[in-house]
Amino acid sequence: MTWRVGDWVVEPELDEIRRGQERLRLEPRSMALLVHLIEHAGHVVSAEQLLDHVWKGVVVAPSSVYQTIAQLRRALADDAEHPRYIENVPRKGYRLIAPVERVPSTVGHAAAGDHVESTTSAPASPRRRWHSWQIATAAVVLLVGVGYLLAPESLRQRFFAGVPERSVAVLPFHNLSADTGDAYLADGLTEDLISNLGRLPGVDVTARSSVFVFRQRERDARDIGRQLGTRYLLDGSVQRVGSQLRINAQLVDARTGFELWSESYDRSFDDVLRVQEDIARSVARALEVLLTRDSSERLAERAQARPEAFDAYLRGRALWNERSVSALMQAREQFVLAIERDAGHAPSHVAMAELYAVLPLYGVESPDLALPKARAAALRALELDDGLAEARATLAVVRYQYDWDWAGAEAEFRRAIALNPSYATARQWYAEFLSYSGRYEEAKAQIALAFEFDPLSPTITTLRGSPALWAHRYEEAEERYRVAATTYPAFGLAHYSLGLSLLGLKRAQDAVGAFEQARRGLSRDFVAPSLAHAFAALGRESDARALLEEVRASERERYVSPYKIAVLHAALGERDQALTRLEQAVSIHDDRLVLLAVDPLLDSLRAEPRFAKVFASTVAPRSASR
Question: In the predicted model, what is the mean pLDDT of the chain?
Fold first, then answer.
């Protein structure tokens, strides 16, 4: 059977496609996949169907489908973004969209001297499949190696220089379950693997926010490796049928795109944590990581939880990542349920600590109610497992934002980073702590390290400008923030931060534009104090006062930081009201008070004795940590 597909003639018997004088030979499985799409032209074919049809009887990870599709697109000169041949249907599969017609076969009629360019190896004999595959792989590796050696030095440095040999990114596992509601399971297992691998000594692990960028994208290992600056990729899938799970995992070398290790696990849900432990140990062996007794025991500890508790925990993490007030409340219910089902599951206590720590930011609870609960949950987690970097980092935040124990906070940050040097969030929070302490160079170094482990995070990309902002180096801050706002135009924090730097440069009109843009992605209460200062600088007092009244109205419905209202009063020159609000902030241990030493929006109050008293009780103790 021969077909014309768009501009190409497809000859399955020859494993060949041709267009005019151009001929390309496909690897047999690539041809089998193409033929299956041709036979179902115009219809969506799922990745699972392609796995069953093309790799029947062979255990492979789902990424084999995506890699083969990518190879076909390159051969057909197709474009994933603007396809003319193979269309990706998100969460569904693939569809051949080019016109298809049958044409006479030319098999047996090719001229003896015809040249056919081979894109992969020749067809393999079924009995010699693995030997032929090994030979073909060796040949490709040799060609890649020669090409790499002959490439310009600058090109090699651009792609590979500085990438740690023992660095790995866990790509979001695919949910192959019939129920799309099981996506929380695949995402949760991905996050847990990131945490587990972060415990391996000497291994750099890319953070969640960067790897989840690739959740809905077609995956080419080498491109992803270059974007993330990582050597290895761990990819896989999860499929649940009743109480049974099939988990596929594979480790790929991002430099070559070749698989180093793969495994398929058919287990009950009760064994899911053991599977994660097995995967982590397999990755350690592949990366030639020597597990110490301590690190081995910690991996085993993570694998101990009652299944029903772990399920509630994963559901809670999925809700937590949505970051809306309603989702956070549902997440809290799931974490409570997880702890009720297994009070000894330390990660559930960490999750509860992290959740309570952000409730003031979302206006759900005031700091004097939420942060003591965050502290208690973090301490309980550490009682169960004192090696949890996440618990240490959250405890550090509470130590300085609520307890005003700056020395204790710094000690916890350092412990967290020592336990998991790849934990980008700990480095981000530590950088903020250092910025508020006036330690510009150290803050700049920590946020740069956070960016290395989380290079596609909008938050960390933005916060690379914050050490300069709080050091009042506004031109440097503006440059950093403008890069973030350009890279992530829909990210409100980038525009808000840009506005702060412009306000520092006395460019109030430009700051207003940035703040207005920020209000599309952030709450109005969050932006209002800074926008009010910009309005006041432009003589628009009525607009600034309208913002104050708007925030005070919100205060009647939910928690609003008194510190923010103090900044609004300061914008209007109302010093007594501003100082009264700061004193109120002290009474509830408002977490925003940590900004007192560096916030230029309160400069008009610094000469006041009442301000000095507020400062002495909250921020001044930071000197103990320097």
Answer: 85
What residues have CB less than 8 Å from 112, skipping those under 6 apart?
none
The DSSP bridge partners found for residue 512 are none
User: 622 pLDDT band (50/70/90 cuts)?
Assistant: low
Instruction: Specify the DSSP class assigned to residue 605.
Output: G
Residues 23-33 have a mean pLDDT of 84
What is the dotted CATH code of the domain comprising 305-415? 1.25.40.10
pLDDT category of residue 276 using cuts at 50, 70 and 90: confident
- Domain spanning 167-302 has what CATH number? 3.40.50.10610
83-116: burial string, b at 16+ Cβ within 10 Å, e else: bebbebeeeebbbbbbebeeeeeeeeeeeeeeee
Topology match between the domains 3-106 and 167-302: no
Average pLDDT over residues 72-80: 83
Q: Which CATH number fits domain 3-106: 1.10.60.30, 1.10.10.10, 3.40.50.720, 2.40.40.20?
A: 1.10.10.10
> Under a CB-based contact definition with an 8 Å cutoff, are residues 176 and 238 in contact?
yes
| Residue 406 DSSP SS3 | helix
Name the residue among 351, 350, 348, 352 with its Cα closest to residue 370. Answer: 352
Q: Residue 261's beta-bridge partner residues?
A: 251
How confident is the model over 171-225, as pLDDT tens digits?
999 988 888 888 999 999 999 999 888 888 888 999 999 999 988 766 678 888 8
Distance separating alpha carbons of residues 401 and 432, to the nearest angstrom: 11
Domain locations in the chain as residue ranges:
3-106, 167-302, 305-415
Residue given tokens 């050696």 in the structure block: 149
Tokens 């050490």 appear where?
Answer: 467
What is the chain's length? 626
The SS3 call for residue 265 is strand
Decide the pairing of beta strands 174-175 and 232-241.
Answer: parallel
